[in-house]
From TrEMBL:
InterPro entries: NAD(P)-bd_dom_sf, SDR_fam. This is Uncharacterized protein. It comes from Papaver somniferum. It holds the Pfam family adh_short. Keywords: Membrane, Transmembrane, Transmembrane helix. The keyword RNA-binding does not apply. It comes from the Eukaryota. One of its GO terms (molecular function) is 3-dehydrosphinganine reductase activity. GO terms for cellular component: endoplasmic reticulum membrane. GO terms for biological process: 3-keto-sphinganine metabolic process; sphingolipid biosynthetic process. The lineage of its organism: Eukaryota, Viridiplantae, Streptophyta, Embryophyta, Tracheophyta. The chain crosses the membrane at residues 6-27. The keyword Transmembrane applies.
Length: 202
């Protein structure tokens, strides 16, 4: 009798746990993999650092790649280096993301964009109380307003596109600088991403 009672208790425990495991497996979100071969990837801050590495990787995977930054020499250097190692010719745009009209012009001149990576960024590491207001404004303008400019410029064409498959926008943020203004505007980037989810058709 005692063993029956024990078995009954075990079943009561095991069945819900089994159901939970099955539900976890079925409902677990899985990333969608969309090959970027042949798609147009537009990377800001693509002339150096992380942006350059992304541009190189996208070109290696057969994407059509555009990079945007201010310094023409650095852009040309990045273009040559990617061409040498991948054989892919990258388009370059010398633009300051702080200027909305210039950003709009570059995006309209480029081929329709499938993937926009807003990666440009400046970081002047100083403690908040020692940081000049102009420095804070500079970082805000490049990192935050620049990203707004890019998204505002690209959204109309992304939303009206037909039969070109899914499009996406990636925003670069950072966990660094918890006591610096850098963190505040990088945090805004995350909030911006949440709004974007509602703005994009896919
Ligand atoms: N490196 C890290 O450890 C790290 C960590 C976390 C997050 N991040 C983020 O990752 C991104 C890339 O970082 P990184 O270290 O690779 O940067 P990086 O090597 O300094 O490159 C920054 C890029 O942004 C461009 N840029 C700067 N100001 C611009 C402007 N006003 N308009 C257009 N382009 C501009 C630069 O080119 P020009 O100067 O020629 O314009 C350059 O191509 C940034 O958003 C950064 O906040 C970096």
């Amino acid at each position: 009798m005692a063993s029956m009672y024990f078995l009954f208790l075990l079943l009561i425990l095991i069945i819900p746990i089994l159901i939970l495991i099955i539900l976890t497996i079925i409902l677990k979100p899985r990333p969608t993999k969309i090959p970027i071969k042949g798609r147009h990837v537009f990377i800001t801050g693509g002339s150096s650092g992380i942006g350059y590495a992304l541009a190189h990787e996208a070109a290696s995977q057969g994407a059509r790649v555009s990079i945007l930054a201010r310094n023409v020499d650095k852009l040309e250097e990045a273009r040559n280096s990617i061409r040498l190692s991948t054989g892919i010719d990258v388009s370059v745009f010398s633009v300051d993301v702080r200027n909305f009209d210039d950003v709009k012009k570059a995006i309209n001149e480029a081929d329709p964009i499938d993937v926009l990576i807003c990666n440009q960024g400046v970081f002047i590491p100083e403690e908040f109380d020692k940081q000049e207001v102009d420095t804070i404004k500079f970082m805000m303008d490049v990192n935050l307003m620049g990203t707004f400019h890019l998204i505002k410029a690209v959204l109309p064409s992304m939303k009206s596109r037909k039969d070109r498959g899914p499009c996406s926008i990636a925003l670069m943020s950072s966990q660094a600088g918890q006591e610096l203004i850098y963190c505040d505007e990088r945090y805004c980037i995350v909030t911006m991403l949440a709004h974007l989810v509602h703005a994009l058709p896919y």
